[in-house]
Design brief:
116 residues, alpha+beta, two-stranded antiparallel ribbon, 47% helix, elongated, disordered C terminus
């Protein structure tokens, strides 16, 4: 597994990351969850530099497609519920992929046959 996958596992378990100066801190909702993530946290401790770079990168504002203007960027702390049956554990990745889908849709003119 890589850093992004391990961060996703930890956040899916209800834990959250935050920066404290240059240090990355992990908050756990309860002690049982912390105890259940010992191996994952040990992996992240071995890859501290990559973890910090990954967390900083996903907080960056994604580039907007031509014709769209970002009015406000407020990345939510994961997990972020989109629907009652879906949870986003990486809001920046979700935003980037959504914007990529918008770019693709905007780059293809509609022929009027799709009902839109």
């Amino acid at each position: 597994m890589n850093v992004a996958e391990i961060v996703g596992v930890i956040e899916s378990a209800g834990a959250a990351f935050r920066f404290d100066g240059k240090r990355v801190r992990v908050w756990y909702p309860d002690e049982a969850r912390r105890d259940g993530l010992v191996e994952e946290v040990a992996f992240l401790l071995q890859h501290r530099t990559e973890v910090a770079a990954f967390l900083r990168d996903r907080q960056s504002v994604p580039e907007m497609p031509q014709g769209l203007h970002l009015i406000q960027w407020s990345s939510k702390k994961p997990p972020v519920a989109i629907e009652t049956c879906s949870v986003v554990t990486d809001p920046a990745l979700f935003a980037r992929t959504t914007l990529e889908q918008l770019r693709a849709a905007l780059s293809q003119p509609s022929d009027g046959l799709d009902g839109a």
